[in-house]
Specification:
Its main location: membrane. It is a single chain. This protein is of the alpha+beta class and 1326 residues long. It is 41% helix and 15% strand. The protein has 44 helices and 34 strands. Strands 16, 17, 20, 21, 22, 23, 24, 25, 26 and 34 form a ten-stranded mixed beta sheet that branches. A nine-stranded mixed beta sheet has the order 14-33-32-31-15-27-30-29-28, sandwiched between helices. Helix 4 (77-109) packs parallel to helix 29 (925-935). It starts with 11 loop residues before the first strand and ends in a 28-residue tail after the last helix. The model is unreliable at 723-762, 1133-1162, 1165-1170 and 1181-1326 (pLDDT under 50).
Length: 1326
């Protein structure tokens, strides 16, 4: 354990079958240890870790102080009991977690592996495998270490592996041994193998390996294609042998298992700040009381020195004050009880279990439940302002289906005939016995074209059956299983299969197909593989007749420019078809071919071989050789593949938009694809004022486009809010004057002059935040690279954050993380990232909250996430229900916790002024010990775990309820000081009321009650009753557990108090329990109960009065939701007539297809796709023989609901005219433009005169109740103002809650942003 770590390696040398040689390098063994402790180290290491927490160290310091008799007025157990309890609970939790890590480690380390030792295979545990050993792997076995593949049972030294545990990808990959070792398949031959491998040191690069094999005086290059990494599973391969290169912690799997960055919530950070403030407050109180002690000892205490001298260490009043300071620090330390931190963790754990147990977040299709993978971020789910989402596999299903195609200018695939009816699904089985029965296609014209032998159609599907890197496995006669690197390729090869061109098998040099029932074998001459830069792939094949042909498929933007000029007419027609397919939201590819002569092939083949052997810039040389041959091609047609939206995506995005959450889609797809998916999932809507596209290729052009977009936003905002534009104009004027412009040169902004002037300052955030209207922003990948530069960050953020929806296209994984970090840096808002693939991991880790979707791209995103589930639609429940509840509960818990502890502790402070500042406590030491861990802990835990203000379905129906979390309204510094003030007020009442009453009170027999113990019991009892009544008032949702804990805690208090004052304990511990029968005697006095009742009333009645007034005059959103629910129940309205059902009734999305948008194309080659298996195939290394969308987004209301609900009586200008009522916006879809106006149709506001006699809205719930008799749930419809006064309805309330009006009002939604006067529609109350 304490062995000195060897120096870092510069290179690794491994000799096969020579343990003695390899051991001198002290390479790590294959034993892994992810656990943190063992039996000997657990206690010291765990305690060391726990005392790194400031709070634990603070309480340890207090414990040490309490052990000093001169300054401690409390017994040591008042601190050590809670501290030991906290440390024990944490230690048990850590020990349990580490036990499971030990168990997992032992399970892995004790797996069996076959190791070649002295010429024979012996079973060894994984932990005993050493670097340099040769091991045998069998089918479906995990690879024990990072090994160099030496030989395989498959031809050509091939083996197939699955790497899901490494990178989350479930498709099979191919690895091949070095040819010189491929024949060493026999253990006897391998026992004599003594080759030496020199390679790179251990690292975490999963896709890279660089090394050399030296054997028999020759050198052989090694690459990642020769390696089998730990964590992989051997598939479809009987057996293989490998040489161990990296073992245990040096393997790439373990090198990538670094700890995830620890995330803290904003409440955690605030709580740390508040605790520091409380520490400061504690020191101030100690100083005040110490000064009081010094004054008292000097002025009064000196008079008693003759018979009440100071204790021996104290010789003057200053030293007495010094000791008194520390004594009061000990007594008053309960303002920050240690139980606070344990209670917070228990509450978070309970919230995590609620997420795990939520049946409505369980996906029955994939049998996957939601999982909270962390317990520290639950309340931050209720404060999210920005969501960053991947597209493919997150918003879409990543399940591709062949939908349409264009062949020689003829389009196929329409699902409706000329009569408008949908034809039947085609049955391919009579025509093709090898057809896939799950393939769906409806257009029989294409099948007829294949049957009649159309040359172009045959060549089209021949290309699809040959131009790919799909692996085929024929499990039984005619039962083919395709393994494709991407769903796109699988869909295209399956389409060719059903139309009679069946890909059967391949070898390193051949492809075998079945064409219209006839088996044809093509010679595979070359594969020009796909990558993200080329955006296309090609194959060169020789048919049985000896003709050489190149087949190519790729993105239309790169393939159409490589066509022969004779294709111009066909290219025009096909481009129109591509536009139509793109408008339908389909992923498109163009197909082409070229015939090659023998001479052309020989010349190109030689240049290709030369490029492949290059040691420097090999990829660039290969790409240049590919470009030479992929020219002058003949166009065949195009394909269109459908990637369906996941269930519930439009509804979820529309609902989240109503909560003022801004959604960013960061995708690797092309712009057209991303824009169409944006419209389909209702991120971009037809009601948006404008959608801007940022597509500049230089920093200057990107800056100019961002400024133009921002200017246009402010222009539209000023046109709507004419009376509020002065501030923005002042900013604009300052910008123009600062750049050498005159005021009358405003039109020059956006022109070339800006490029030569100093950069314009970004507008103040207040101006940009005040922009009303809904805008969309689309940013291309090359433009985003410039926008993320340091001097462009502020411009980009200010423009983007003024938009409702942002789509970034062609984004790399690194850029995804950079965008998230940018928003975190500039907006200080809570961010959430959601994705399903390995390319989303960096984004998920960068965001405050990471959510992984277990989809088609493996589980890598899930492993890196904080929360995971199976469907994007569950995000609305995670945020609006669990997140909002968690935030609400944590805030209520903290407010009450600080209140009850200040009420408890400050009594000591007031008592100090009446006890000569002698550090005497009011309560007995047992009450001080048990107050936070027994008497008041369980009720607040129950509230923190179970409380809710409205039911879950109401949280989804009223999304505006989510806004208090975003604005951090429920627990902030203001709320903290309110809680502290209430606690101090309660302490004043609890001290001075009993002090005043009992000082002159007597028992029935005339004995005075003004003794210390009676006062202590009366005050303690009143305190427990007051805080219990307060928690009862604070609890909004009562369960059996709440009742048990609240009233049970009161019962515990009286039971323990009577027990502590009983004769039984006195007989057992006569030195500890002196006050026998004091509790019984005190609580039998009526005046004591009168005192307790009076103190309770004085504490609680003001709270009740304040809450009733607040509820009546300024209710919160949740109060209004509960009130409207009660009104509905009173009037016996049908269930579901609220905003939720109106929302559900506005329409439905019968197909999850992308919405129609003109002039867009979607490439089937997405940016995130990886390189194919082309090089591997051509080198002979991989073959074996054998519902509904909302109509608009919510406006952001800066005012409260009541400010929205109230209509000002006085007009806003001298003429008496109110803000103009917005007209209905045009239904025309706003066209996309490069940062210019894309408003179409009627975008001008129609100014209408407002009524002069507007009456103010009733502002109280009592007045609302008077009108409740006429509240109805009629369909929402726009109406004009009633001429006689204000019209107040449930729908007006709903507008205030949502910023949304019904389906019929979608026409004027886009124009009534920002002003609380907009949108007057209602059902009149009488």
């Amino acid at each position: 354990m304490f062995r000195k770590r060897p120096p870092p390696e510069e290179e690794r040398k491994v000799k096969a079958n020579d343990r003695e040689y390899n051991e001198k390098f002290q390479y790590a063994s294959n034993c892994i240890m992810t656990s943190k402790y063992n039996i000997l180290t657990f206690l010291p290491v765990n305690l060391f870790e726990q005392f790194q927490e400031v709070a634990n160290t603070y309480f340890l310091f207090l414990l040490i102080l309490q052990l000093i008799p001169q300054i401690s007025s409390l017994s040591w157990f008042t601190t050590i009991v809670p501290l030991a309890l906290v440390l024990s609970i944490t230690a048990v939790k850590d020990a349990t977690d580490d036990y499971f890590r030990h168990k997992s480690d032992n399970q892995v380390n004790n797996r069996q592996s076959q190791v070649l030792i002295r010429g024979s295979l012996q079973n060894e545990k994984w932990m005993n495998v050493r670097v340099g050993d040769i091991i045998k792997l069998e089918n479906n076995q995990f690879v024990a270490a990072d090994v160099l593949l030496l030989s395989s049972s498959e031809p050509h030294g091939l083996c197939y592996i699955e790497t899901a545990e490494l990178d989350g990808e479930t498709n099979m990959k191919v690895r091949q041994s070095v040819p010189v070792t491929a024949e060493l398949g026999d253990p006897n031959n391998l026992a004599t193998f003594n080759g030496e491998v020199v390679c790179e040191p251990p690292n975490n690069k999963l896709d890279r390996f660089c090394g050399s094999l030296y054997w028999r005086d020759r050198k052989y290059l090694l690459t990642n294609q020769n390696m089998l990494l730990r964590g992989c599973v051997l598939r479809n391969t009987e057996a293989c042998y490998g040489l161990v290169i990296f073992a245990g912690p040096d393997t790439k799997l373990m090198q990538n298992s670094g700890r995830t960055k620890f995330k803290r919530t904003s409440i955690d950070r605030l709580m740390n700040t508040l605790v520091l403030w409380i520490f400061g407050f504690l020191v101030c109180m100690g100083v005040i009381l110490a000064v009081g002690n010094a004054v008292w000892e000097k002025e009064v205490g000196s008079l008693f020195q003759s018979y009440l001298p100071w204790d021996p260490p104290v010789d003057n009043f200053l030293f007495s004050a010094f000791l008194s300071f520390w004594s009061y620090v000990i007594i008053l330390n309960t303002v920050v009880p240690i139980s606070l931190y344990v209670s917070v963790e228990v509450i978070r754990l309970g919230h995590s279990y609620f997420i795990n147990w939520d049946r409505q977040m369980f996906c029955s299709q994939c049998n996957t439940a939601a999982e909270a993978r962390t317990t520290t971020l639950n309340e931050e789910l209720g404060q999210v302002e920005y969501i960053f989402s991947d597209k493919t596999g997150t918003l879409t299903q990543n399940i591709m289906s062949f939908n349409k195609c264009s062949i020689n200018g003829q389009t196929y695939g329409e699902r409706t005939d000329q009569m408008g009816t949908q034809p039947k699904r085609l049955d391919f089985s009579p025509f093709n016995p090898l057809a896939d029965p799950q393939f769906c296609f409806y257009d029989d014209k294409l099948l007829e074209s294949v049957k009649v032998g159309d040359v172009h159609t045959h060549e089209f599907f021949r290309l699809l059956s040959l131009c790919h890197t799909v692996m085929s496995e024929e499990k039984s006669e005619g039962h083919l299983v395709y393994k494709a690197q991407s769903p796109d390729e699988g869909a295209l090869v399956t389409a060719a299969r059903n139309f009679g061109f069946v890909f059967r098998s391949r070898t390193p040099g051949t492809i075998t197909t079945s064409e219209m029932g006839r088996t044809v074998t093509y010679s595979l001459l070359a594969i020009l593989d796909f990558n993200n830069i080329r955006k296309r792939m090609s194959v060169i094949v020789r048919n049985p007749e000896g003709r050489i042909r190149l087949y190519c498929k790729g993105a239309d933007t790169v393939l159409l420019e490589r066509l022969h000029p004779s294709n111009l007419e066909l290219m025009t027609v096909t481009s129109d078809h591509l536009n139509e397919y793109g408008a339908d939201g389909l992923r498109t590819l163009a197909l082409a071919f070229r015939d090659l002569s023998e001479e052309e092939w020989e010349v190109w083949s030689e240049s290709h071989r030369f490029a492949g052997k290059a040691t420097d810039c090999r990829e660039d040389r290969l790409a240049a050789s590919y470009d030479l041959i992929e020219q002058d091609m003949m166009l065949l047609g195009a394909t269109a593949i459908e990637d369906k939206l996941q269930e519930g995506v439009p509804e979820t995005i529309a609902l989240l938009s109503l909560t003022n959450i801004k959604i960013w889609v960061l995708t690797g797809d092309k712009q057209e694809t991303a824009v169409n998916i944006g419209y389909s999932c209702k991120m971009l809507t037809d009601d948006m004022a404008e959608v801007f596209i940022i597509s500049g290729h230089t920093v200057q052009s990107v800056r100019q486009e961002l400024r133009s977009a921002r200017d246009r936003m402010m222009e539209l905002s000023r046109s709507r809010d004419g009376g509020k534009r002065g501030g923005m104009e002042g900013w604009a004027e300052a910008c123009f004057m600062g750049n050498g412009f005159q005021q009358d040169q405003e039109g020059d902004v956006g022109g070339g002059k800006v490029f030569h002037s100093p950069p314009l300052p970004s507008p103040p955030s207040s101006f940009m935040d005040s922009i009303s209207g809904e805008f969309g922003l689309v940013v291309n990948g090359h433009s985003l690279a410039h926008a993320l530069e340091a001097d462009m960050e502020a411009e980009f953020v200010s423009t983007a954050c003024a938009c409702k929806a942002i789509i970034c296209c062609r984004v790399t994984p690194l850029q995804k993380a950079q965008v998230v970090e940018l928003i975190k840096k500039h907006k200080k808002a809570v961010t959430l990232a959601i994705g399903d693939g390995a390319n989303d991991v960096s984004m998920i880790k960068s965001a405050h909250i990471g959510v992984g979707i277990s989809g088609q791209e493996g589980i890598q995103a899930v492993l890196a996430s904080d929360y995971s589930f199976a469907q994007f639609r569950f995000l609305q429940r995670l945020l609006l229900v669990h997140g909002r509840w968690s935030y609400l509960r944590m805030c209520r818990f903290l407010c009450y916790f600080f209140y009850k502890n200040f009420a408890f502790t400050m009594v000591h402070f007031w008592f100090g002024f009446f006890c000569g500042f002698s550090a005497q406590t009011v309560y007995d030491q047992y009450f001080i010990t048990l107050y936070n861990i027994v008497y008041t802990s369980l009720p607040v835990l129950a509230m923190g775990i179970f409380d809710q203000d409205v039911p879950d379905h109401r949280s989804l129906e009223y999304p505006k309820l989510y806004e208090p979390g975003q604005l951090n309204l429920l627990f902030n510094k203001k709320e903290f000081f309110i809680c502290i003030a209430q606690g101090i007020y309660t302490s004043v009442v609890l001290f001075f009321v009993p002090y005043a009453v009992l000082s002159n009170a007597t028992q029935s027999n005339g004995v005075p009650l003004a003794d210390y113990q009676t006062f202590a019991i009366s005050t303690a009892t009143a305190l427990v009753i007051v805080v219990s009544v307060q928690i009862a008032l604070d609890t909004g949702f009562w369960t059996v557990i709440n009742h048990m804990f609240v009233w049970g805690s009161l019962g515990f208090y009286f039971t323990i108090m009577f027990a502590l004052h009983s004769q039984t304990l006195f007989r057992i511990f006569p030195n500890q329990f002196h006050f026998v029968g004091c509790a019984q005697n005190t609580l039998l006095q009526p005046v004591v109960w009168l005192t307790i009742a009076l103190a309770t009333a004085i504490c609680i009645v003001p709270v009740l009065a304040f809450r009733f007034l607040k509820l009546d005059l300024k209710p919160q959103l949740s109060d209004m939701v509960r009130y409207t629910q009660l009104v509905r129940q009173k009037r016996r309205r049908p269930a579901g007539c609220g905003i939720g059902s109106a929302w559900r009734g506005t329409g439905s999305v019968t197909e999850s297809r992308l919405g129609a948008r003109g002039g867009s194309r979607r490439s089937g080659y997405a940016f995130a796709h990886q390189e194919g298996f082309g090089e591997l195939i051509t080198s002979g290394k991989n073959m074996r023989h054998s519902s509904l969308g909302l109509v608009s987004f919510a406006s952001r209301h800066s005012s409260s609901w009541m400010e929205t609900l109230r209509r000002k009586k006085n007009p806003p200008n001298a003429s008496g005219d109110c803000s103009p009522a917005p007209s209905h916006a045009s239904d025309r879809v706003p066209p996309l433009s490069n940062s210019s106006s894309v408003l179409g149709g009627s975008q001008e506001e129609t100014v209408t005169e407002a009524d002069q006699n507007i009456q103010s809205v009733p502002a109280s719930l009592s007045q609302l109740e008077a009108s409740a008799e006429n509240l109805t749930c009629a369909p929402v419809r726009p109406q004009t103002d009633s001429p006689g006064g204000w019209i107040l309805t449930l729908e007006t309330v709903q507008e205030a809650l949502f910023g949304w009006k019904g389906a019929a009002a979608r026409g004027n939604t886009s124009d009534n942003q920002g002003s609380p006067r907009a949108a007057r529609e209602s059902i009149q109350t009488e």
